[in-house]
Amino acid sequence: GAMVLHLLSARGALDEGKVRVRTLTLPDTYQDHDTPERMYAQAGLDAASIVKVVEATLPAREAAAERGGRLRLA
């Protein structure tokens, strides 16, 4: 189930509906040991990387407003 969700969301197959999903997971590769902050950043799991994924996944604010969307980013 989780792998199917991961594959469908990574390919954007769920974007046509009202829900957009992106899974954020550790990469399936070896990571050199480092500080937790650097390891999360390298894996794309730090705050800045998560914000980028959210912004790339959500429709533009103007497009959402035209459709009557109520989600707002602070």
Automatic annotation (TrEMBL):
SUPFAM superfamilies listed in its UniProt record: TK C-terminal domain-like (SSF52922)
Domain of life: Bacteria
InterPro entries: Transketo_C/PFOR_II
Protein name: 1-deoxy-D-xylulose-5-phosphate synthase
Species assigned in the record: Methylobacterium aquaticum
Lineage, highest ranks first: Bacteria, Pseudomonadati, Pseudomonadota, Alphaproteobacteria, Hyphomicrobiales
